[in-house]
Amino acid sequence: MRLVSDHIVEGRAGPTFAPAYPVLEQVRLTDIRAFTHGQPWDDYAAMRARAPVMWHEGPRTSGGGTGVGFWAVTGYEDVKRVNGDPETFSSEAGGILMGLGPEETRHPTLFSASTNSMINLDGRAHRQLRREHMPYFTASYMKGLRARVAGEVARLLDGVAPMGTCDFVEKFAQRLPIFTLCEMLGVPVADRERFVGWIHFLEMAQQVAAEQIEQLAGLAAPSPQIAAFIQLFNHNVGEMFEYGRDMLAKRRADPQDDLMSAIANAEVEGERLPGEYLDGAWLLIVFAGNDTTRNTLSGAMKLFTEHPEQKARLQADGSLLTNAVHEITRMVSPVIYMRRTATRDVELNGQMIAAGEKVIMYYGAANRDAAMFPDPDRFDIARTNAEKNIAFGYGPHLCIGRMTAQVQLEEAYRQIFRRFPDMHWSGGIDIAPNNFVHALRRLEVAFTPERRAA
Description:
Strand content: 5-15%
CATH architecture: Orthogonal Bundle
CATH class: Mainly Alpha
Distance between the termini: 63 Å
Keywords: Heme, Iron, Metal-binding, Monooxygenase, Oxidoreductase
GO molecular function, one term: heme binding
Strand order of the largest sheet: 1-2-10-7-3
Number of domains: 1
């Protein structure tokens, strides 16, 4: 099985064809620090209105210049088209990330794993790997998983019940997805706490790379604190991959009825996955299986606090819960973008795109397109087409774990609003500098504590 990382087409700094739409100078989608204030909803709206397929210069490089530029796509139908046509807009030809960064800033294993995985494949290889995972993402499997998730929600809420205030991320939102994923993978209970730290460092990968690039370009002075953090980052990422390799080797030797065994023994073209793809599968399941659900759980709490009438509506009518989760997912859009590479010259909404050029789909922008979702910035748990959101993608790469996220969000808010009807975001928040995922690291909440019987 060939490695994607050996065949990636890097692309160009500037466009081949003249831009059909203006370049909006205020839009800086490569500035990761700007995303610490949340997603740029106003910029998305301006792009949809004036430049729905807009040329954007690439991220900063270690030489002080800019890297590979890209076409930023923000309209709902355009994002669906790109997602749904892998023959024209390939994941495999150029990878799904905005920029790979200079070699001197790459963690070698993290770079290899992030490019050599199911999500970076097209065609038959992608379908075969996806099929190997599917038994653990079906409706029948979710039915059995739901009871375990409900039990963990109750246990976590028991832990915060007497507090009255807490960091919702630390005490609940980061822990429920880790429990769920570890149950599916078959990770021993004693090892699960280690995942908390690994996820934290994975979310910091963009910041680490950006700070290294700034130092190499002479834009920032070398810092002992940054050097120490990079050392700690490398240690934790290395530890995560060592653990994954050990577990996958054990499952190859002694398969169990769990997702870890399915990954370890997956075959493409009659051959088991090489080590690089095992690393990639491990990274994908650890990061994607945790991060999006965690951030949507926290984002939901913020939304319900900002829209108390919707919270009251859901508390009065529990039958709205499933649709409410679709609307929460639309509004939060925890995955900010995915990238594709054009395999041929193609026209998209009046813009010619050349073969080899990068196309980035902004899911949050598409999910607030008024052409699809009337009054799109309004949070409405009864929105009739909320399920049409594309926060989990569309087409062949539709997220395999979307039902797992749905189950966790439903069970979480079913119990939270029953036991703590006044739980609300109290104002404290910390969003990571990350333009790939909307990563909430801290969300302070307050509520009336439960009284324990004497």
